[in-house]
Design brief:
This protein has 14 helices and 23 strands. By secondary structure, the chain is an alpha/beta fold. The strands form 4 sheets. Strands 10, 11, 12, 13, 14, 16, 17, 18, 19, 20, 21 and 23 form a 12-stranded antiparallel beta sheet that branches. Strands 1, 2, 3, 8 and 9 form a 5-stranded parallel beta sheet that branches. The radius of gyration is 28 Å and the shape is globular.
């Protein structure tokens, strides 16, 4: 393991440097696509790379392959698949299928690091100005891959022929490591019609991108046949069963795939991954003019909370390196510290930080506990207040908030709480535009949200970048405030107020009271189980044009408890003026702006009505709201003083 992860990596690299590059530069394999793009021939074979569903029935999957002895597929088991009770006992049956060449198993990592970002963070996130984080550990990549290969050989009693990296993300820097591990193929992210690039004895496979769409009712089974037919246009296919909600759908797909294979004209020969690569030497697969390493790393590295995670990880990794070079390192402690680092480099946690804050508090705590173990094992004091690393007070303003946006996100005063929202984020998920009309820039840009209180009243205030006056426009700004009084997850409502489609309030901030604050009045609601929320009061609104502030005062006799303990979910939307009865009815978002609609909504999907959310950064907001474009339900983020 040490040889593969360290010594071999360095010695081969140095040897190649002396042979083909100046001493100061590392030799990197050069990819040169053919000068001419050939037409894709009618494929005579078909290779399926298949990721089983994490909750699927492995016994049923094995029975499927036993019942189809002429069918072959390459299985790529997701991280942690065999941790489920009972699956390890089925490994001998899978080994028999491998011996009979029914299946091939691709090499995977037991964790899911984003390898190019671990190799070197900077080149893959060039737009993150101001991060100033140096994270470059190619030895971590080599060590984790070498460790995985050793564990593969122990489990499957043979060496792997190919590799499926986490998220199918590779960079050119990993090629040398793959070659040292004697791998024949590696899967990279699907692109258009796909392609293959062969470098010495290593084939990089980019399967064609074939989208799966459930039918109009959301049913999965009726769409599988069309999906299978689309896959058969090409000689290789990559299918991840996690695209299906129901785990048993994986068997429905495989049965349909086999039927398509049997009915194909001309006859298609099913191939394993290694056989597919061998076939390319006989009949080369054309390489389209695409970048095999073109990958969007933004989901792992763009929000302020992700910045904090990378910063904490970088500091802990340096602590281990300093301990290793101290001359006094205990080898057992050093090995244990590196295992903790590999655990912290798992991309699943970093990915979660791009989502709602309310969804990953436990993962944040686990991440910090892991890094705290790194400090202890490295015989280094854990930094003070390390357990509060991700608290709102530690956050910095991101570049996306605008040049003049220098205030901290949260400010606590005497009997007052204030949150400052980013400037210029009045664009919803990044696509929304104002209604048609002469609206000043900033009319729907939430600038701040504050709560103050006296013994008798609670004052809720918000400011806008530009405050328009009532009745001057067809659409006015409207602020929704969902208040969680008791801080008990699920003890309240997670449903939004009426006519707010496509979104829910986080379960951790289920609300007991909700406010709809317009420019002319405020309405106060309570949830009623199974029914529309009940309006329990209407209150006067005070406007401060000079401060661009909207303010409403509510009696504490109605709102129970202390405001400094409440959780608040806050979103700005638009309301149509002149509705009968003065109802504060939200406007929706259509593809193109209209006089009484925002523009930029996705055709065929009901957009959440919010154009601005109270969030630490514009990117946080866009990440939350963009979920609806893929058919997901938006979860509103909450804030609280803690």
């Amino acid at each position: 393991l040490a040889f593969l992860a360290g010594c071999a990596y360095e010695r081969v690299e140095r040897k190649e440097e002396r042979a083909s590059a100046p001493p100061s530069k590392a030799a990197v394999p050069t990819l040169t696509p053919p000068s001419e793009l050939l037409e894709i021939p009618e494929p005579a074979s078909m290779a399926l790379f298949f990721v089983p569903h994490p909750r699927g029935d492995l016994s049923a999957l094995i029975s499927f392959f036993k019942g189809h002895p002429d069918f072959r597929a390459t299985l790529i088991f997701p991280a942690g698949y065999f941790d489920e009770m009972g699956r390890k006992s089925l490994i001998p049956e899978l080994q028999n299928l491998m011996v009979s060449r029914n299946i091939e198993v691709g090499l995977t990592l037991k964790r899911e690091p984003v390898l190019p970002l671990i190799q070197d963070l900077a080149p893959h996130v060039p737009k993150l100005s101001g991060w100033n984080i140096y994270f470059k550990w190619p030895e971590d990549v080599a060590a984790q891959m070498a460790q995985a290969r050793m564990e593969f050989q122990k489990r499957w009693v043979e060496n792997p022929s190919g590799f499926a990296p986490p998220y199918l993300a590779l960079s050119q820097d990993q090629i040398r490591t793959l070659q040292l591990l004697k791998l024949r193929w590696a899967i990279v992210a699907p692109q258009s019609t796909g392609g293959v690039q062969i470098i010495d004895s290593l084939a990089l496979l980019s399967p064609p991108r074939v989208e799966y769409e459930p039918d109009e009712e959301g049913e999965e089974i009726p769409s599988i046949r069309e999906f299978s037919k689309d896959l058969f246009q090409y000689p290789m296919a990559f299918v991840d069963a996690r695209i299906w909600t129901a785990p048993e759908t994986e068997l429905d797909f495989l049965n349909e795939f086999v039927r398509e294979l049997e009915n194909a004209k001309p006859i298609r020969e099913p191939l394993l991954g290694r056989q597919l690569v061998e076939s390319f030497y006989r009949t080369p697969y054309p390489y389209p003019p695409i970048d095999l390493f073109d990958f969007d790393f933004g989901p792992w590295a763009r929000t302020d909370r992700q910045r904090l995670a990378w910063k904490a990880l970088a500091q802990a990794r340096n602590v281990v390196e300093n301990y290793k070079n101290s001359g006094q390192a205990n080898l057992k402690k050093l090995d244990a510290a590196m295992e903790e680092i590999y655990h912290a480099e798992d991309g699943r946690f970093l990915l979660s930080l791009g989502e709602s804050r309310s969804q990953d508090i436990e993962m944040e705590n686990e991440f910090l506990a892991t890094l705290a173990n790194v400090y202890r094992l490295s015989e280094t004091p854990v930094p003070a207040n390390f357990n509060r690393w991700f608290s709102l007070g530690d956050r910095k303003i991101t570049a996306a908030q605008g040049d003049g946006d220098l205030e901290p996100f949260f400010v606590e005063g005497v009997q007052e709480l204030k949150w400052n929202d980013p400037i210029g984020d009045d664009l919803g998920d990044g696509n929304l535009t104002y209604p048609m009309g002469n609206y000043p820039k900033g009319a729907f840009d939430l600038r701040s949200f504050s709560v103050s209180w006296t013994d008798s009243d609670v004052i809720i205030s918000f400011s806008l970048l530009e405050l328009i006056l009532p009745k001057e426009h067809l659409v006015n700004p409207l602020l929704d405030v969902y208040i969680d009084i008791n801080r008990l997850p699920g003890a309240g409502s997670v449903d939004p107020l009426p006519n707010r489609t496509g979104c829910v309030v986080a379960r951790e901030a289920a609300w007991e009271f909700a406010l709809a604050i317009g420019l002319m009045k405020t309405e106060l609601f309570q949830p009623v189980p199974g029914q529309t929320p009940r309006k329990i009061g209407s209150y006067e609104v005070k406007l401060d044009p000079s401060g661009k502030m909207v303010r409403v005062r509510l009696p504490r006799s109605i709102l129970r408890g202390s405001p400094e303990r409440w959780r608040y979910s806050v979103g700005l939307l638009g309301t149509e003026m002149g509705v009968s009865g003065g109802e504060l009815r939200p406007i929706s978002a259509t593809a193109s702006p209209r006089q009484k609609n925002f523009g930029g909504g996705k055709v065929g999907r009901k957009s959440p009505p919010y154009i601005d959310l109270l969030a630490p950064s514009a990117q946080d907001q866009m990440n939350l709201l963009a979920v609806y474009r893929d058919g997901g339900l938006v979860t509103l983020q909450y804030v609280d003083p803690e």
